[in-house]
């Protein structure tokens, strides 16, 4: 689960990680109030107004702007709230901004030597260890640094059984070329950051930039945090940070029915049991000239209700021109799924798109018979290749 920058900073503060202070606002008026309070608390006169969306690259897209007085705070907050912000991570349609973070300007006016660094922590699955990535090229697109100057990314692996050792935190501070007070501050920063990462069961922390001010303070200017969904049950407070406005509405609906659904851009809706079979089905759709409209794993115990919920989801996507149902009857019996399909079809009523059903495994023949005798516009197939051919045929018909 992704969270917003302001929520990530709240977590960091709890662990003693210094951050660029800020207050979240949903209207220009609230933004002005926030700015006044920040001036009282931090002494800052200038503020940065930062769009809160679940995507990076906001600065380049016009979602991060400096305000030098309260009028500008109001004006800029008014521009950013409600805008459709497009960044390299949002896709061309962008994301609507509902909130801004009004933050203290930490690049002090006249500060000749603010230095930006990059720090992230994530799980290296191949090594079975967490890895801290550090770079002096902060504020930049890290993918670009990785491509053009990979030697500028320093990596330190952390054995989860032992945890982050003092010497490792110092190695990172050395890699940044720091000394004196800033060195000590960075060691503390990295140590607390790592503790926050482990305690929250995160799968990624990315702080870009980490800032060193001219008076040698180290602080997080940005914060991108991804939490492990499977661990949220033991972090009720973090689970509440979920912002469903940031998620695809169809995916939100799917999660309510316990369906594993990912929306894609193609024209063939697919409903499959098992993630591996779902991937194979998407491949076969592509091979037959279609493009999958979604990934949908209805799980091992598919019944009439799950099949119907899956159907409804797929049908809400206007791009869908055909549906391929591919079920392997292992735990679930094919006749039961077939009955589920027929029942769902009747319940939903007006289904405009052709449906190809491939049932294999326990009671497959019985399942195919139920489909064929239902009198509905459903085609049954036995082999995967045959199913793909039928998808091709129906797509050619609608084209
Ligand atoms: P991102 O573009 O989504 O990664 O958002 P960031 O939070 O990283 O902000 C983008 C850029 O805005 C940073 O790299 C900084 O250069 C700039 N920025 C952020 N905070 C401040 C600030 O307090 N003062 C000034 N002058 N610039 C800032
Ligand atoms: Mn950033």
TrEMBL record:
Keywords carried by this UniProt record: ATP-binding, Ligase, Magnesium, Metal-binding, Nucleotide-binding, Tricarboxylic acid cycle
Domain ATP-citrate synthase/succinyl-CoA ligase C-terminal: 271-391
GO biological process terms, semicolon-separated: succinyl-CoA metabolic process; tricarboxylic acid cycle
InterPro entries documented for this protein: ATP-grasp_succ-CoA_synth-type, ATP_grasp_subdomain_1, Succ-CoA_synthase_bsu_CS, SUCC_ACL_C, Succ_CoA_ligase-like_bsu, Succinyl-CoA_synth-like
Binding residues annotated for ATP, in chain numbering: 50, 57-59, 106, 116
Residues the record lists as binding Mg(2+): 208, 222
Gene Ontology CC, one term: succinate-CoA ligase complex
Cofactor(s) listed: Mg(2+)
Pfam families on file: ATP-grasp_2, Ligase_CoA
PROSITE patterns according to UniProt: SUCCINYL_COA_LIG_3
ATP-grasp fold succinyl-CoA synthetase-type domain ranges (all copies): 2-210
EC class (word): ligase
Pathway: Carbohydrate metabolism; tricarboxylic acid cycle; succinate from succinyl-CoA (ligase route): step 1/1
SUPFAM superfamilies: Glutathione synthetase ATP-binding domain-like (SSF56059), Succinyl-CoA synthetase domains (SSF52210)
Residues that, per the record, bind substrate: 273, 330-332
Catalytic reactions on record: GTP + succinate + CoA = succinyl-CoA + GDP + phosphate; succinate + ATP + CoA = succinyl-CoA + ADP + phosphate
Cofactor note text: Binds 1 Mg(2+) ion per subunit.
Function: Succinyl-CoA synthetase functions in the citric acid cycle (TCA), coupling the hydrolysis of succinyl-CoA to the synthesis of either ATP or GTP and thus represents the only step of substrate-level phosphorylation in the TCA. The beta subunit provides nucleotide specificity of the enzyme and binds the substrate succinate, while the binding sites for coenzyme A and phosphate are found in the alpha subunit.
Similarity comment text for this entry: Belongs to the succinate/malate CoA ligase beta subunit family.
Family annotation (NCBIfam families): PRK00696.1, sucCoAbeta
Protein's name according to its UniProt entry: Succinate--CoA ligase [ADP-forming] subunit beta
Species of origin: Rufibacter quisquiliarum
Gene that specifies this protein: sucC
